[in-house]
Q: What sequence folds into this?
């Protein structure tokens, strides 16, 4: 007897399903938290600057000054920057920053919502697949295509988020950015996205060959009768296809 024993994982559900599923949300969740923080930090800086200008403006009355300060305390500057009339008054850099934050937040939230929706859909498909083989077939067919498309979208979205993070994490927290880091992350993201997309949409070779020999009708009449009954039911005829070292009987 071999002394080597293969130990089964203690928590097969966690290692096989839960952890991989959670890993799908890692980049979108971190990106959402970071870019919400970045947007709030810029809002705070600009709000303080505007309020200082309002307090220093001698042309305003006390009531006008209080109303203006209350307005900018209640309404975030990111909300104002999303309006076209306000965006026109901003510098190009500020407009670009807020546009980046806005799209990164939308992309992160979209990736999280899409991932959760796909997991729920797959879970519903698994539950429905126990009803019958017909339902199982359609659940598998639909889930397969949904997973392919959603996985492709997730890979592209997360690659873009990683590139954005490679610039903004250092720029926001350490007041510098590394072009080399951005290029490395960008190249890795492009290569990774290309490899994953190629793997997702690669055509699967479904030509399965089973080595064997043809059983004549005299040798295995029940098998041939059953095959003929199945073919009659679906409206086709048995076909014999030979290849070196094997023979395939199909309908």
A:
């Amino acid at each position: 007897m071999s002394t080597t024993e293969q130990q089964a994982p203690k928590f097969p559900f966690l290692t096989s399903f839960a952890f991989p599923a959670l890993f799908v949300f890692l980049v979108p969740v971190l990106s959402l938290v970071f870019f919400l923080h970045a947007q709030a930090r810029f809002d705070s800086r600009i709000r303080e600057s505007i309020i200082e200008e309002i307090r220093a403006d001698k042309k305003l009355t006390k009531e006008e000054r209080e109303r203006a300060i209350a307005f900018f305390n209640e309404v975030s500057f990111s909300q104002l920057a999303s309006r076209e009339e306000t965006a026109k008054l901003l510098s190009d850099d500020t407009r670009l920053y807020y546009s980046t934050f806005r799209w990164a937040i939308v992309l992160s939230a979209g990736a999280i919502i899409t991932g959760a929706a796909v997991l729920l859909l797959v879970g519903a498909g698994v539950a429905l697949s126990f009803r019958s083989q017909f339902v199982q077939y359609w659940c598998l067919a639909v889930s397969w295509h949904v997973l392919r498309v959603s996985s492709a979208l997730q890979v592209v979205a997360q690659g873009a988020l990683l590139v954005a993070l490679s610039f903004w994490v250092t720029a926001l927290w350490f007041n510098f950015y590394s072009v080399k880091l951005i290029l490395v992350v960008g190249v890795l993201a492009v290569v990774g996205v290309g490899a994953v997309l190629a793997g997702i949409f690669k055509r699967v070779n479904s030509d399965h060959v089973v080595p064997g020999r043809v059983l004549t009708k005299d040798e295995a009449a029940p098998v041939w009768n059953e095959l003929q009954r199945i073919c009659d039911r679906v409206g086709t005829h048995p076909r014999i296809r030979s290849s070196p070292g094997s023979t395939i009987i199909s309908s």
